[in-house]
Amino acid sequence: MPLATATLRRTRRLAVASLLAAAALPLTACQGGGDPAPAASSAAAGDPTAADGGSGGAPGKGATRTGAGQTSAAGGSGARDGASAGNKGVDGTWAGTLRWLSEDQLTVAPEGGTEQAFHLTDRTKALGAAALCEAPDGRVHTDGSGYGTTSCSLADLRKAARLGTVEVRVTVKHGTATKIAEHYRP
């Protein structure tokens, strides 16, 4: 077989393999909040990850561990953590822009990171400062980190997500948001 033909075949194979790998990449970390395949338990005596259920992936760029299989993204960097053994969805904390996906699913888009989808439930706690919702006294109430402390409704949260301009910190457990706090920018 001539050298040119062999080189052409290798190039085609490499191109097809690269295309398949790129197409399969979004399917690997359950970033859309979908149901991951059940993970095999590796909980053995002496396994340090057995106490917290382990994790399906490493923290993303700029992320730090916050304990028990959770990941925290500082400064808007995307953080990813796979599903723990026996649990569905991702666990972690993301900071970024709140965006609309559907009635019961929003996303947070960290600056320079991967957009993370999460579900809303009646148990999701929404805390605003000014853009998400106002305090009854009309003042801005924030914690020491500049995140809102005024309780907001899920309707307020959905309205802000449709605008796509509100910066938030979202805490997610098993793919469901447990707390969403607006980052106040005066």
Automatic annotation (TrEMBL):
Biased composition (Low complexity): 36-52, 61-86
Keyword Signal annotated: yes
Annotated spans, Disordered: 33-88
Signal peptide (UniProt feature, chain positions): 1-29
Highest taxon in the source lineage: Bacteria
Keywords: Signal
Protein name from the UniProt record: Lipoprotein
Organism per entry: Streptomyces lydicus
